Amino acid sequence: MAGLRRAPTSTFLLVAFALLSRHVSAVKVTVPPGRTECVGESVDAEHFAIPGGPRVDGRVLVSGNSQYYVPFVTIRVLSPNGDQLWQQQHVYSETHFNVGARGPGSYKVCFYNPWESRTDAIVDLVYFTLAHLRRGSGAITIPKGTQDDRNKEVASTDHMDDVRRTILGMSEFMQVISGSQKYLTRKLERHQETMESNKRRTLFYTGLEVMVLLVVGVVQVLAVMGFFKTGKFSKVSV
């Protein structure tokens, strides 16, 4: 029984170490008009040993600093062989891609800002990762028998491979969850910035309108008072 109690603890520590040692890719790039910027993410071969279909998953936010033009970009996802896996044109605000992976190697996501955009595009790649979102049968079986037989079975290579694949699958899934949380946080921050910008702009124009009305009112009062000044009208003799 002591062996069964220690095994879950060691497995939990392995899972925690794997989750903490990996990170969700996140990068923000500025793409001038007529330029293309690419970001790569390497995927090891061990990830393709996990049961289920591996998917390349990511979320992108697009914004700009110009007050007169709204930038838009074309986004492409490329396989390690350079094949195009996914593309979307005229992305003004945000998008989400989820496509099947094609083996280990370096996957790229490229952002093209056309000349028609007329301004720099700020592209926020919130996360870009590989995940087995549809997992097959990868449950870890607890061996039967005496304590010595269980310890030998747990220490076997096949069993440890199952544990490692399960940890990798959980790590991938946590990357997607963490990336989705970052995406919601970034989106909320962008909405707050938009609200603050609209508030400042509304207050500015409201104040300007009040000042114009006050100036117009003062001018009208002065004009009316000027007509009633002494000597303004000439006397008419009868």
- CA(first)-CA(last) distance: 129 Å
CATH-level-4 superfamily name: GOLD domain
Mean pLDDT: 77
Structural class: alpha+beta
Number of helices: 3
As a percent range, the share of helical residues equals: 40-55%
Low-pLDDT runs: 1-24
**Strand order in the sheet with the most strands:** 1-8-3-6
Count of all domains: 1
- Classify the beta-strand content into a percent band: 25-35%
The helix/strand order is HEEEEEEEEHH
Regarding quaternary structure, what we see is: single chain
Brief overview, please?
It contains three helices and eight strands, in the order H-E-E-E-E-E-E-E-E-H-H.
Question: What does this molecule look like?
Answer:
The protein has 3 helices and 8 strands. With 238 residues, it is an alpha+beta fold. The strands form 2 sheets. A 4-stranded antiparallel beta sheet has the order 1-8-3-6. Helix 1 packs across helix 3. The relative contact order is 0.17. The chain crosses the membrane at residues 203-228. This is GOLD domain-containing protein.
Q: Which features does this protein show?
A:
single chain, 238 residues, Jelly Rolls, 4-stranded antiparallel sheet, elongated, disordered N terminus, Emp24-like, signal, membrane, transmembrane helix, GOLD domain-containing protein
